[in-house]
Amino acid sequence: MPSISLSNGRTSFFHAICACLTLLAVTDGRAQGPGDAPVRYTIAQTRDVRTGVKLPGTVESTVTSLVASEVQGVVASRRAGEGDIVRKGATLVQLKTNELELDLQGGRGELAEAHARLERAENAMNRARNLFDEDLVAAEGMDDAVADYRAWQGRVAQLNARIARIELDIERCTIRAPLGGVVVSERTEVGEWLNAGDPVVEIVAVDELRVRVEVTEQHFHQLREGGATTIRFGARPDLLVEGTIVALIPRADPRARTFPILVALANPGRELSVGMLAEVTLPLGRMQRSVLVPKDALIRQGEALFVWAIGDDGTASMGPVEVGDGYGDWVVAESGVTAGTKIVTRGNERLRPGQSVVGEALEYDLP
């Protein structure tokens, strides 16, 4: 490293610093030039993986709720309509509460009166007890005072229960979402009279979905809960989603003689919808030697997939690739990639054909 002499002034100091940085700017065994693009790459691997059996399925929601009114009343407003995304606890429909609020006001007035009468009955009971102790009143008078006091105690408790019931009915007039999801149908309109139990909206949970697949008896007995799958969708060919077998239902369709299984998958971006057609790859095939590339390397242009590769001369080139089953962070490259190729997995969105790159290895856990 060159020495830095402060006595030569600012110019000498600047040139010395530049020389130091030039010597340090070496990645992947060579210096980075002004036009070099920094990228991360992963070596395409060859592995023995189990080929999958592809079967059609249908996307379902794990939870579907037909939300109903718990009380009767007139719809004052509707806060959610078809297609709206609602969170748990969000207001869906508001019923009118005018009559209930009047009942509540009357009940509270009766309760205030009952408390006053209870207090007077308690005072009368205490006086009767003192007189009874002094043999100035008969036992019958004492019993009447105690009975009157207990009667007003019961009346107060009765009114408290009535008020609590009215307050609960007022709260139930605000019909809320029991779960987060998407409103798929509206069952009421503003001004409509609802009876208790009448539906107001239907909500489908879409954050976590599942795919129902029918499998043959032979395949059914080869599967296990917790098994990993990969899923593609006819409406979204760019998506390759991982799923987990969560249920093996031991009841065959009497006509088709197939057994249903359920495969759970996450849908955090809500890119998938209930009812979509899916193709599920189940781990039931034979072991096969395959070339694997990281999923992060895939770039979609229209209907085609491409990857960027780094050549021996340190330049980047983009080529088409056909992919098969997915295995964790990796996917089978059925054509377009050979084992040992440096495949760009970070920084590929800004590359140009023939551009010189400086790469740093990025490792992924192998399946």
Tell me the overall shape. Answer: elongated
Counting helices, strands and paired strands, the structural category is alpha+beta
CATH architecture of the largest domain: Beta Barrel
Amount of helix? 10-25%
Radius of gyration, taken over Cα atoms and rounded to an integer in Å: 37 Å
Low-confidence stretches: 1-32
Structure description:
A hairpin with a 6-residue loop joins β15 and β16. The protein has helices at residues 9-24, 98-133, 139-172, 217-220, and strands spanning 26-27, 30-31, 37-43, 45-50, 53-61, 64-68, 73-78, 85-86, 91-95, 174-176, 181-186, 193-194, 199-204, 208-216, 228-233, 240-248, 258-266, 277-282, 287-294, 299-301, 304-310, 316-320, 322-327, 330-335, 342-346, 357-361. With 367 residues, the chain is α+β, with helices and mostly antiparallel strands. The protein folds into 4 domains: 28-49 and 288-361, conserved putative lor/sdh protein from methanococcus maripaludis s2 fold (Beta Barrel); 53-62 and 205-285, Efflux pump adaptor protein, beta barrel domain (Elongation Factor Tu (Ef-tu), domain 3), CATH 2.40.30.170; 69-95 and 173-202, OB fold (Dihydrolipoamide Acetyltransferase, E2P), CATH 2.40.50.100; 97-171, Helix Hairpins (Orthogonal Bundle). The strands form 6 sheets. Strands 3, 20, 21, 22, 25 and 26 form a 6-stranded mixed beta sheet that branches. A 6-stranded antiparallel β-barrel has the order 5-14-17-16-15-18. Strands 4-19-24-23 form a 4-stranded antiparallel beta sheet, with no helix packed on it. The model is unreliable at 1-32 (pLDDT under 50). Helix content is 25%, strand content 40%.
